[in-house]
Every structure is written in C-alpha cells, then in structure tokens.
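Researcher: Good morning. I'm working through a list of sequences from a screen, and I'd like to move beyond sequence-only analysis. For each chain I'm collecting a predicted structure so we can compare shapes side by side. This is the next one on the list. No need for commentary yet; just the structure.
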Amino acid sequence: MPTISQSPSNTPTSAGYAELPELPAPQQPGVEAHFFPGFTGHAVATAGAVIHVLRGGSGPPLLLLHGHPQTHVMWHKIAGELARDYTVVLPDLRGYGDSGKPASDSDHGPYSFRSLAQDQVEVMAHFGFDTFFLAGHDRGGRVAHRLCLDHPGAVRKVCVLDIAPTLTMYADTSQEFATRYVWWFFQIQPAPVPENLIGFDPAYYLQHHLAVQNKTPGAIAPDALREYLRCYCCRATIHAVCEDYRAAASIDLAHDRANDAAGHRVTAPLLALWGARGTVARLWDVPATWRAKATTVTGAALDCGHFLPEEQPKAVLAHFRAFFRD
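Model: Good morning. Structure tokens for this chain:
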C-alpha cells in the first residue's frame, strides 16, 4: 500500500495557520431553518465521530453526501422538494462542516472512505433505516462508492455526481488532470505543508477552488458561501480535509485494488451524473468508468460544471425523482 509520510517534526507552523481558530465558529441562529425549513438538527455519535445531521420530510430514506470544500448546505436548492417524497438525511462528512474532526494516524485510516462510509451507515441506523437510497457529490460520491462495496445490502440505489472512480482517476493521471485537479496532488503532501500554505488564506483557497470548477455564474449562493467559509477556515477542518485526500491517495487505493482483485462490484443500480463542462467529462468516458465497477449503470451529462446540485438543481431534482422512484 502506498504511504504518505509526515514532514519532519521540526517543520514550522505558518503564522497564518497558527492564528486560525481550532474549530468552526458557531453557526448563527436561524441559518439551518433558512436553508432547510422543516428539517431538524441532530448530533449522531458513531464509533469514530459525532456527525452533524439534518433530517426532514417523510417517505423512503434518501441519504445525500456532500463533497469538498463544502458542507450539507450544498443540497439547499433541492432538499426541500425531495422532502415532499422522501425522508431526506443531510450529514456533514467526518472532518467537514460541524461534524467531528477526530485525530488521524500514520495510515490516514480515520479519514478513509471506509471510515466515512461506516459513519453514514451508523447515522442511518440511528434513524431506524437499514436500507436507503444514496447520492453523493465529489468526495461524498467516493464515500457512496465505498459504502456500496462495504455494505451492499444497505443501498437500494446510488447516484454519484461528477466523479469517476478514485483508482481510475489516479491510474489515468496526465499532466492535464494534475493541472486541473491540483488539490488532488497538493493536499496529499505530508503534513503540515498543505495545512500551512492553505492556512495563510483559507478563504481565498476555498473561493478559488469553487470558482475554477463552477461553470454557472451565480450558482454558489452568497449565503451558502458564507457557510462554506465558516466551516472551512479553521485548523481542524483544514487538517481533516488534507487527511481525506491523503487517505484517498494511499489506504483508499489499497481498498479499491483489493475489491477489484476479488471481483467485488457495486450491485445496487447506479446512476452517474456529470457536468458536461467539467474536468471529469473532458478526461473520462464517465459511464464506461462506472460500468467497470458496477453491474447496472445509467448516466447523463448536465450542462454545467462540477457543482451540479447548485448549477443545475432542476435537472438534478428531475433525475433523482425518476431514478429513486420505488
């Protein structure tokens, strides 16, 4: 298994990173109700972290997982409509948003997709759901992929948004991919190098990340951006998201290779959605990458960049309603 070493113990901490708060500032009253009226907030203790979760609606359970550098707020344009027909569960992934940010270790296992997937199975069990529909964007899509492999009986159907499989993307790395997805190679560097550099101006780093992947001007709402910034601009989140990427380039690849060698595939019906103007569409045949990993695959491209639920919410909502129909 590839490993990502730590920097020498005498590596200095940057002034910018050291001056950041350890944790996100408390959310202002009324913010969750503004984005998700009628939803209730919960703190669910799993074996590895305390997960911040919203729940709303009624009907079959639907778990929605966000990506980097965002939080559950990325679903705010469609969650209310989905809650008319589904019990919608909106967690912040471990390390992100207002969820717990536990200590990591030398193999980055606490931030592996396996660990993050286990959190979500325990979250759903907390609400009494042994099986559920599942959708994940960006890192959340990778957690969803791992959840389907580790807990195949739990997932009725799964949708992954704007990703190809992690192992496929690393194996096919080209200069163009490394240039376009620089954070895949920057954030995996040994701690605390990326943490220190991001810490000089985390607001700039986050907003630049959003800007280069968003192809629909105005799609990222200012109030949503404020939430992303609140949760990202602190030491614990920055370190956690770097650990997420370090795990993806090491222990997660070992898990994926083991599944491939054993012939394990996603057995739940899988819908892949992707942005036609994004990097993933430019560099991969998205449905083909998922047919190599899953038994039943359908897919569609949307006229947007990376942030499908914010750039094309009506189209995502329509695809979800058609796909997750019982």
